[in-house]
Amino acid sequence: MGTTTPPRTLAEALRARGDESLAGLLRARPDLLNPVPNDITQLATRAGTRASVVRALEHLDRFALQTAEALAVAPDPAPYDTLLSLLTGDGLDDGDQRDDVGAAITAALPGALATLREQALVWGEDDRLRLVRTARELLAPSPQHHSPTGLGPTVTEATAGMSPGRLQEILTATGLPATHDPVSAVAALSALFTDRTRMAGLLDTAPVEALSVLDRLVWGPPYGEVTPNPTPPVKWLRDRGLLLPVSTRTVVLPREAALHLRAGRAHRTPEPVPPVVAAAAERDPQAVDRAAAGQAFTALSTIEELLKLWNGGGPAILRAGGLSVRELKRAATALDVTEPIAAFWIELAYGAGLLASDGETDERYAPTPASDEWLDLSAEDRWTHLATAWLAATRTPGLVGGQDAKGRALSALGPELDRSAAPDVRRRVLSLFTELPPGTAPDAESLLRRLRWERPLRGGATTSTTSTSTEGADLRSRLALWTLNEAELLGITGRGALSAQARALLEEGEEAGAALLAPLIPDPLDHVLLQADLTAVAPGPLERPLAETLSVLADVESKGGATVYRFTPGSVRRALDAGQAAADLHAFLAAHSRTPVPQPLSYLIDDVARRHGHLRIGAASAYVRCDDEAVLNEILADRRSTGLRLRRLAPTVLASQSDPGSLLEALRDMGYAPAAESAEGDVLITRTGARRTPPRTPPVPVPEG
């Protein structure tokens, strides 16, 4: 019978994989497919490059990363048992808790190794485990830098270049017999440091102060500075090789000695089990769904209001791209929200393809043609469109107001807001919600701990702190906290818990989410309640044609569960300017009011309509004509008309050097209700111009790396 030769390279290890195992690697590492490799050798080469290995390490959970770090300080190749002992220690118990951790490590290690193999970071059988060379270079300690585990170089590495005489002096000080060459001297010193009994005997003779020095170095960093005349404790350690020189002023605790002091553990706190996401509150699932649906409706109303705000052409684009601070404040005031929340809504509309640049010479933001199609959808379909766009977007509104690497301010809709990790963090945060019972709101701190375990910061995996503040936090933690806030704004969560409609959206798709949301969204109303104080109350959401007409005829005074509209002479004149006649306005109000039309409102409409168009303004530069000479005499006598530079051309005609638009606004400010007319003398109907960009595609998420 023949024997199987173990693979000697990563390429051979990949070649030995089955098709299913190789497919698993490519699913875990899609970056290896761009472009498609020609063969296994090219695939292995690409998997071993520094950029590829760094990306793979960044996708490991904390225990898988700790396993890779332990393997980096183990012999190459390392047996499974050696790796296990580096994670669990040498068996000297620290109590029942230590036994529980050891059992958890023993149970979790096969899964961690499977993850490393899937990521093509480890290859070889269990008796000859090998970390890919680039990963070992990144994770293993060296004379120049220590390992993420806090371990330093080995005795062999630290004594490279040391004089043979100095090595013999160290052997003599430790009570070892002299040797004939440096290689055997280094081997004898390494054997002493790895022998538990002899090493314990050596440390028993150490001064207490020397042991204190070792305590400061044992968990890293293992380097320390010394003076030309070291203190007696440091001199004692240096004479016995427990501190080896790295330079004239720096010494290092060798790896073998540190492992003895650590009881054989590579990590101070191995974390084989992910932290549990704790519940902050348990709420009624139906109340959660209703609260989320209410917020979803608010989100739709806010986006609609933003589109209406920029309907005639939005703010100008900064030269460097994005929205100015002044325009962001203006939008926040119009939407009645804070500036960070306004930035979120603006970025959401942009990410969903509803807003874009118009591409003109005087470049401005404006709604896209897709926004009109979106407005025609049902409320639940509009919400799923926004939610899916948010989940996939790499643009990060939370960065607005901060600074980039060069100290420049980051603006809304600016070019520097993409963060490739954002979709992954959002999905993972919401997936942790789905692991909790319906109606359960997670504790933010425990959620952050879980996320840091799943994607630890390499080099700081065991020391990261937990805080629900974004100040000084790493990017993934900030993204997670922003996700919690944005999910609540968007109606994905309600009262801090995941809604049933969002759970269905995540697990089953848009149709399932829309189907659950539809019964919770109130049906639009076809009526309002007119009040005697010239207001109209909309007790709920209005049908779109009714809402659009009413927004022209009246001004929104307050929002909430019910929207209050106020009729003013200016708002009525705005409706008349849009081509409505007084009879049309009376008929509209009678048809859509559940209460009789109040007499003051009828009088207001008739009074404004009587005066509307009595004056006519056209282009001369501009002129004013009126059949009533007394009105023109009144205008000429008014001091406020001095700046218009009016002069009489005929008894019923005044000419002005102002343009027609300025003249029209000035006379309106003076209390008149003039109408514009065309060159043929017809009244011009001035509807608000809907400005649209050319067809635009939503911004493409930035790929990772």
Could you list some keywords that capture this structure?
5-stranded mixed β-sheet; 31 helices; 705 residues; 20 strands
Blueprint (SSEs and pairs):
Blueprint: H1 10-16, H2 19-28, H3 40-47, H4 50-58, H5 62-73, H6 80-88, H7 96-118, E1 122-123, E2 130-131, H8 133-139, H9 155-158, H10 164-174, H11 182-194, H12 196-204, H13 208-217, E3 223-225, H14 232-239, E4 244-245, E5 250-252, H15 255-261, E6 279-282, H16 285-309, H17 325-335, H18 339-351, E7 355-357, E8 365-367, H19 369-375, H20 379-392, H21 422-434, E9 440-442, H22 444-454, H23 475-490, E10 493-494, E11 497-498, H24 500-508, H25 510-517, E12 529-530, E13 535-538, H26 544-553, E14 555-558, E15 563-566, H27 569-577, H28 582-592, H29 599-611, E16 616-618, E17 622-625, H30 629-637, E18 646-650, E19 653-656, H31 660-669, E20 675-676
Helix pairs in contact: 1-3, 5-7, 5-8, 10-11, 13-14, 17-18, 20-25, 21-23, 22-23, 24-25, 27-29
Question: Can you characterise this structure?
Answer:
It contains 31 helices and 20 strands. Helix content is 48%, strand content 9%. A hairpin with a 2-residue loop joins strand 10 (493-494) and strand 11. It is α+β, with helices and mostly antiparallel strands. The model is unreliable at 459-466 (pLDDT under 50). The strands form 7 sheets. Strands 18-19-17-16-20 form a 5-stranded mixed beta sheet, with helices on one face. The protein has a 4-stranded antiparallel beta sheet with strand order 12-13-15-14. A 3-stranded antiparallel beta sheet has the order 3-5-4, with no helix packed on it. Residues 695-705 have a biased composition (Pro residues).
